């Protein structure tokens, strides 16, 4: 089936090609040998290929080709550089300092070179055995790069697991590609002291975390790498950090563009993802008790509600505090106002205060209360 070239994919291509390059984008058709129809190759040779041009000519295929198709297409269009959708995405992530993308690109090129060397070996078989050792060398290189990627993924996941372990909760913000401005708006409102400008397509290329206070909670808020449709295996590996963050999140906010802003054609492309597809992917990777909130561009002007909605989902405890009428107890009342959310206070024979606090604050509240001969119990 022919893939649809959307404005999203065209924007993505613009970010990674040189300004002076002569670029042509074509749709993948699933042709077994080339990935695109042979007739399209003939037309490119007739009206686009320029043997004497000084500018780089790049053929971008909107689809994922296997190494053999890349080799055959390069053979048919020898003066042109061929990239497919995977190349475009990996190069964009690499430009954004994603730690895995450069090695994934190198492995991708190694597989293409290996396929080309094998093809050359077969063609030269009539002249005797291949003594160059290139096929063996490239095969060894592939194995080395694969191990390097596996090690890098494991190291990244371990680093994420150990980071921000002392906060009360983890909140992650994720979006489909092309909804980055909406995600940036939510990230900025949850972090009012952070001047975030991560609005460009497929940004951030790797998770970005800041620590902020939401109600009584100290929260690690992380902006995750955007998702593409169905999250193919190669993409899941290169953004492994994003999926590790999802497994740790107490709350996930999914930022999306309203479904009616996409045409039917756009929704079939894996670089323009409907919000429901993202929700399904997130649910598959989160813990069962993770709270998932969905926000679209329609709600971005509601400046306060996102913090309130997230605060309502953070793990906390409600406590009833009883204090005597003493000067020290009055100081503790002030401390409770500063460090917890006071829901109610009454003055009778004793001072009775209902507070909401982060789970991690319970011990501190108990110490402050018992130090002035007060008592504390959980509110049922």
Question: How are the secondary structure elements laid out?
Answer:
Elements: H1 7-14, E1 22-27, H2 38-47, E2 57-62, H3 67-76, E3 81-84, H4 85-95, H5 101-123, H6 134-162, E4 169-174, H7 180-190, E5 208-214, E6 217-223, H8 233-238, H9 240-248, E7 251-256, H10 264-267, H11 275-285, E8 291-296, H12 305-313, E9 316-323, H13 327-339, E10 341-347, E11 351-358, H14 362-370, E12 375-378
Parallel strand pairs: 1-2, 2-3, 4-6, 4-7, 7-8
Antiparallel strand pairs: 5-6, 9-11, 9-12, 10-11
Helix pairs in contact: 3-5, 4-5, 5-6, 6-9
Provide a descriptive summary of the structure in words.
- With 380 residues, the protein is α/β, with parallel strands linked by helices.
- The chain has 3 domains: 7-155, Rossmann fold, CATH 3.40.50; 165-313, Rossmann fold (3-Layer(aba) Sandwich), CATH 3.40.50; 316-378, Alpha-Beta Plaits.
- The chain contains 14 helices and 12 strands.
- The protein has helices at 7-14, 38-47, 67-76, 85-95, 101-123, 134-162, 180-190, 233-238, 240-248, 264-267, 275-285, 305-313, 327-339, 362-370; strands at 22-27, 57-62, 81-84, 169-174, 208-214, 217-223, 251-256, 291-296, 316-323, 341-347, 351-358, 375-378.
- The strands form 3 sheets. A 5-stranded mixed β-sheet has the order 5-6-4-7-8, sandwiched between helices. A 4-stranded antiparallel β-sheet has the order 10-11-9-12, covered by helices on one side. It has a 3-stranded parallel β-sheet with strand order 1-2-3, sandwiched between helices.
- Helix 6 packs parallel to helix 9.
- The longest helix has 29 residues, at 134-162.
- Residues 260-273 have low confidence and may be disordered.
